Amino acid sequence: MRYHKSWRIPAIVALTIVAGTGLAACGGGDGDDEPRADVGKGEGPVEEPSEPQTVTFFSWVGNQPQMKQMKAEFEKEYPNITIKFENAPAEQAQQVLSTRIAGNNAPDVAYINASDTADYASRGALVDLENYMSRSEVVKSDDYVDAFKTFVTYDDTMWGLPYDGETTGLFYRTDLFEEAGIAEPPATWEEFADAAEQLTDESKDQYGFEMFATESAYYWYPWLYQAGGDVLTEDGTDIAFDSEEGMKAAEFYVDLAQYSPPDYFNSNSYDGRVAFAQGDVAMYVAGAWFAGTLADEFPQIDGKWAAAPLPEGDAGCKTTIAGDSLVMFDDTEVSDAAWLWMEFLSRPENLADWTYKTEGTLLPPTRSLLESEDLEKEKPILKPFAELMECGVASTVNNPKYPRVETILNEELGKAIYGDVTAREAVESAAEQGRAILSR
Q1: Where are any strands of DSSP class E within 385-439?
Q2: Contact 85, 59 (CB under 8 A)
Q3: pLDDT tens digits for 34-69?
Q4: What is the rounded distance in angstroms from the CA atom of residue 105 to the CA atom of residue 108?
Q5: β-strands 53-59, 81-87: how paired?
Q6: CA distance to 337, 343, 416, per residue, from 324 (Å)
Q7: Phi, psi of 249, deg, nearest 5
């Protein structure tokens, strides 16, 4: 399975809150923070340059066979353009890229966490892609899922092209459901709580659900959104998760701890996969990456598990999402060639090959592919996650202080999961401390 940051560090990446990265202003290559407005202007599709040009492409996926294959195909189609891969480890990519931008040494194009796009754009580092998109016969903004468009939009302008993503859904053990006489996966909060209770038998060390105090905030967010709450106010200046909707979500979420194996409270979601594979827990909330992990690591339970959309709350279908996008940096001197590379990668057939037609479980960000019969045929396990893409919540509040608030929220909700405080006390305490941080 392709290494994808969202399942390794979910509390940072998949939260989808854009935090400042300490970039120096770098628009237009002259030290101001206003990007050039004329890049990409013209009529008709962009044409190949008449003289040889090199496009630098920064990512953590340059060594992937599929990306190497697309580079070869692109260079064959556009012989005057050479793509030069500039690779960095996934866990270091943001820091490396930020340092390069601050040093006026940005690449031409980069593959980044989609949730970072607005932050780079707000600092004048990126090219406004609207001119190029208006000329493209391939890239259509209306085809992107709204949540992924939100990721790459700043000041009502798209600064990136969504490229791949995943949603958080429900995995469940069909064999344990059958034993308990439960015919279908739960579709509402009430059904979820009832199923968790029916599937729990402490005398057999069998539990209905699995929770992780170490990642409590991230796995609370879907319930918060489903209740109609949010993490911050719309302008990003105040805490919003202590609303009545937030309190309701926290009380429901924390109450599920009674149906979860306490031995895993101090574990993490990746290590917790073992309990699901062993049949110790019947339900597990995770991103689409988990489907690939189960198939790769635990083939012995093939046919004993399935996936479904998360149950719905008062606000309906809501879930967290994560993804990656393609961006062009404003200092580029080969913008047309850079756009042709981005456009080539965004062709439907290439998006399909990069996502659901590989061994991994990434999803394309376009409605046309998500709704296609081809996706369900190639990867039927991804169907519920594809359905959830329209329910994705992508908050692009630009507050660099929020990660510190989330750390506190995580600690407080963790205490509640252990039973040291109530859910309401945890949320109130996190909100009080969070407001102190935001006001400094």
Answers
A1: 392-393
A2: yes
A3: 667 789 898 999 999 999 999 999 999 999 999 999
A4: 9
A5: parallel
A6: 21, 15, 33
A7: -65, -40
